[in-house]
Amino acid sequence: MKRKIELLAPGGDIDSIKAAILAGADAVYCGLDKFNARNRAANITFDDLQGILRLAHKNNCEVFLTLNIILVDREIPAVVALLNRLVNTSIDGIIVQDLGLFYILFNYFPGLKVHASTQLTTHNEGQICFLKRLNTKRVNLSRELNIEEIKALTTIAHRHDMLSEVFVHGSYCISFSGICYLSSVQSGNSGNRGRCSQPCRDRYVTTAVGKDYPLNLKDNSAWNDLKALSDAGVDSLKIEGRIKKSDYVYTVVNNWKRHLQHFYSQDERQNNNHDLYKVFNRDFSNGFISGTIQKEMFIDNPRDHSIQHLSEVNSYPTAAELETAHLKLYADKVEIKSSLENRISQISAAKEPLTLDISGEYGAPLKVTVVSAERSFVVYSSKNLENKGTEPLNYSMLFNRLKAINDTEYFIGRLNIDNLRGEVYLPFKELTSIKKKILFILNGSKEMIGPVEIPVPPKNEKRAVNPTLCVLISNTKDLHLWGNSSAEIFYKLPDCIGFELDMLTDLFISKPGLIPWFPAVIMGDDYTAAVEFLRRVQPPLIVTNNTGIAYEAYKMGIKWIAGPFLNIVNSFSLMALKENFNCSGSFISNEISKIQIRGIQKPEDFKLYYSIFHPIVLMTSRQCLFHQVTGCEKNSIDDSCLQQCERSSSITNLKNGKLLISKTRGNYHTIHHEVHFFNPDIVEDLKGLFSSFLINLEDIQTQTEIEVDKAGLIHRFENLLNENPGSKQELCQVIFPTTNTQYFKGI
Asked: How far apart are the C-alpha atoms of 301 and 285, rounded to whole Å?
């Protein structure tokens, strides 16, 4: 008998969740109307959730709730209030991205199982160790991984008593999840807030190779990789699609369920995926999971591919026969939808009504008989009823005292007091005791947990801070800048550090004051090389945008700063970094506004950093972004591409302007905004909060003109931080055009 693998289905609304359960899902993931990364889905209310839990568990299906966005400080009280309600439900897991929320769950709600969202871009061993230290029970691995990488990370997860989860069907993101800011910068709709407007699916000015949708990938399908996923030890197969309708969810889940059943039984009968082409799709690819990252993963049309697929797989001799086939496909879709709607209407995801029969008389205990459709039980008061007291027992008073039952998977459908004889009284604490007994039984014989109050981080003391300047470079030719000013120099390491490990080791050993800056994505052998770099160099300080390297630095006792791509936006994230990983400082995300930054309180002996001037990275991709733009002589990406390729180009969105595409040696493909970010206002606006401001002097060519050399630019920024008169105006004269829209829009 083969090992059973969980089939995890999306649920964007109640009908989709019902459809997933009818189709045989082992678990569903869904979001409430707040704090989840699919705000465009219909989502559900808390009352809906209680009914869904009842229905799902009755059908041996688990429910995971998505709270997978980054949170600003003003939202924390509302999230804590929600957690205080969730802890008394039968929810099976909470899916999380924000490190502050991990901290709160770890310290105050240990009974809730925490799952790491795909937004955390988990792709190396250290990241799994980092998440384990935050009490994570399950990790959704990065969508860009191949099967060997998945197998290696699943083995590590199991070693740490964590489960692994892999997306096997649905939309691909062209960017590494969690570090895509394209929608955020262009429209203020942050992907890290569940508001992605999908500009990667937009139409662009036709490229040199004739493509109108150069960033549009086919959909993910690991249909033919099931055995490999099973052999890799993957625990859960996840289907994407919380903005899809119920007929889509049912069709996809039903097909994957049958696929698994055939696999378990080793049934060799025909088991194809033809039905998956009958619902929305952009055609399918398994390029990432198979490790064949090639141009065939793209499709120059973001719309439904169903009709096109039908035409491609059948050779219709006449136009009339083709039209007939198309009409039949539409008719089949209508029939499937109608049949499903009928089945959905026959099952209820509502909370279960209870009848409460209340009986008793003076001198006897109060008796409460609780009756549901499936069971009944009786609860008695520990004291006898009295003939005097504060308030006589009546319908209104009893309903008010027992109404907490309505916050469970049940509700008081009928309250019968016909058998309550005479005017009788019972102390309020006795009624509270009865309520607790009822809730205990309804809650699976578990005590209800009282609300937890989270201490508010103490406000930062107003003290004079003279912020320092730090400078990021990525080329040895800029090392002459080091030592010519008081600025700290950060040196950006390549994504693929393994290619240059010896050279980089020698460089940093020879220049012990130079501070390594680690990128956000460090995979496979490059992660091993990065750890070896730390071991050899033992730098006194690093900056890292990768939590795996953060974990290794913590373990080695190396002082470290959290980089801007860790998406730090609240006080509790800072506490998580300091208390759990001995972090000494952190960059605050450039996604948030002045008002949102002002709410952040930093821990004692902790430094805050902010990038004040930089080329704006909109996304980083494992795919080749030139296939659809200028073309490439290679069909697939290989190691030599990562090591050697250097090129650049641009595409122009019909709505939002130009995007700059670049590939440099040793790095993944990136897309940058057309102008640099420049925000001198923050120095005066939030005086005393930041210990240091960063300027990024990497050689990224945008439309921003800089009319002085790098040394001159450093000097002018030092003047700004020293509050020299006219320094801001002077900088604005030598740097233009620029943007700092996010500083005002926020998330």
From this structure: 14
Kindly list the distances between the CA atom of residue 364 and the CA atoms of 361, 383, 385, 420, in Å, as whole numbers in the listed order. 6, 8, 6, 11
CA distance 297 to 320: 32
Give the pLDDT score at 35: 80
CB 238 within 8 A of CB 7: no
Q: What type of residue sits at position 208?
A: A
Nearest to 489 by CA among 711, 341, 273, 708: 711
Q: Which helix (H) or strand (E) holds 473?
A: strand 468-473
pLDDT digit string, tens, across residues 318-363? 878 878 888 888 888 888 899 999 999 999 999 999 999 999 999 9
Least Cα distance to 352 among 423, 442, 260, 221 occurs for 442
What is the rounded distance in angstroms from the CA atom of residue 14 to the CA atom of residue 48? 8
d(CA 614, CA 367): 70
648 SS3 class:
strand
| Residue 632: partners with Cβ closer than 8 Å, 6 or more residues away | 295, 624, 626
User: Are the beta carbons of 634 and 663 closer than 8 angstroms?
Assistant: no
pLDDT at 485 over 60: yes
The residues, ordered by sequence, that sit 6+ positions from 675 with a Cβ below 8 Å of its Cβ are 616, 702, 703, 704, 737, 738, 739
pLDDT of 37 > 70? The answer is: no
Q: How far apart are CA 612 and CA 722, in angstroms?
A: 15
The amino acid that residue 130 corresponds to is F
Q: pLDDT tens digit string along 237-283?
A: 999 999 999 999 999 999 999 999 999 998 766 688 999 999 999 99
> For the whole prediction, is pTM greater than 0.85?
yes
Do the bridges between strand 136-140 and strand 114-116 make them parallel or antiparallel, or are there none, so unpaired? Answer: parallel
My answer on whether omega of the bond before 603 falls inside 30° of 0, hence cis, is no
In angstroms, rounded to a whole number, what is the distance separating the alpha carbons of residues 370 and 402? 12
Torsion of CA 546, 524, 642, 671, to 10 degrees: -30
Taking each helix axis from N to C terminus, what angle separates 46-58 and 14-22, rounded to the nearest 10 degrees?
10
DSSP state of 651: E
pLDDT of residue 109: 97
- Alpha helix stretches (DSSP H) within 599-702: 639-644, 681-685
Per-residue pLDDT reduced to its tens digit, 623-646: 999 999 999 999 999 888 999 999
Residue 369 CB neighbours (<10 A):
15
Place of tokens 């105050």: 108
Tokens of 44: 């559900």
- Count how many residues are written for the chain: 747
Indicate the burial class of 286 (C-beta count within 10 angstroms; 0-12, 13-18, 19 or more). buried
Which amino acid is residue 387, in one-letter code?
A: N
CB 613 within 8 A of CB 695: yes
pLDDT of 359 reads 97
What's the CA gap between 202 and 653, in Å, rounded? 7
- Structure token pair of residue 310: 């039908």
Question: Which tens digits make up the pLDDT trace of 710-739?
Answer: 999 999 999 999 999 999 999 999 999 999
Q: CB–CB of 123/153 below 8 Å?
A: yes
Tokens 């600003």 belong to which residue? 72
Tell me which residue has tokens 């991984």.
145
Beta bridge partners of 217: 298
- Interatomic CA distance for residues 3 and 692, integer angstroms: 53
The Cβ-side half-sphere exposure at 13, using a 13 Å CA radius, reads 11
Indicate the DSSP class of residue 208.
Answer: T
Both tokens assigned to 604: 């004692």
Poorest-pLDDT segment among 426-435, 455-464, 471-480: 455-464
Beta carbons within 10 angstroms of residue 490's beta carbon: 22
Instruction: For the beta carbon of residue 433, count every other beta carbon within 10 angstroms.
Output: 16
pLDDT higher than threshold 90 for residue 176: yes
